[in-house]
Write a structure and sequence with these properties.
148 residues; mainly beta; 11 strands; disordered N terminus; 6-stranded antiparallel beta sheet
Length: 148
């Protein structure tokens, strides 16, 4: 149900962002349309539709103190830090104390189906995510099994 809700929200934002997609597109940070996925985590779609087959670009914005629970995505994702210090961890056990900090300009590759968690500690963080859809967020338990 959680994956369905997230992808439904992304569809609306993707449609707005891609109107007239055959033309040049210029966006400033003020042009982005942010949609709350869960408290403290917003998404803005710049290109494509992460729910469907094909290339997409989106941004995630984490409020201070917001971390995702361990999860994975079915396809590889490529992430660049735009603003703030993004804390990243790998594996199925949430361990904020051992998360690796990545500052603006840093890059991280999330391999397909590799469990990870990420977020912000004391400042707003914005990351840009690129990949091939569909790209649902699949939360996992400590054994790596999907949580419904």
């Amino acid at each position: 149900m959680r994956v369905f809700t997230i992808t439904s929200l992304l569809l609306v934002v993707a449609w707005v962002a891609n109107a007239g997609s055959e033309d040049f597109v210029r966006l400033t940070p003020d042009d982005l349309v942010w949609t709350e996925l869960e408290p403290g985590l917003d998404m803005a779609i710049l290109e494509g539709d992460p729910r469907k087959e094909g290339y997409y670009i989106m941004r995630a914005r984490f409020s201070p103190g917001t971390f995702s629970a361990p999860h994975y995505h079915p396809n590889t994702r490529f992430v660049t830090v735009i603003k703030g210090t993004w804390y990243t961890g790998t594996g199925t056990v949430w361990d904020k104390e051992n998360a690796v900090p990545l500052g603006p300009g840093s890059y991280m590759k999330h391999p397909a189906k590799a469990a990870h968690f990420d977020g912000a500690i004391d400042e707003e963080v914005i990351v840009e995510i690129r990949g091939m859809g569909p790209a649902p967020l699949v939360y996992v338990d400590s054994d790596g099994q999907p949580i419904d």
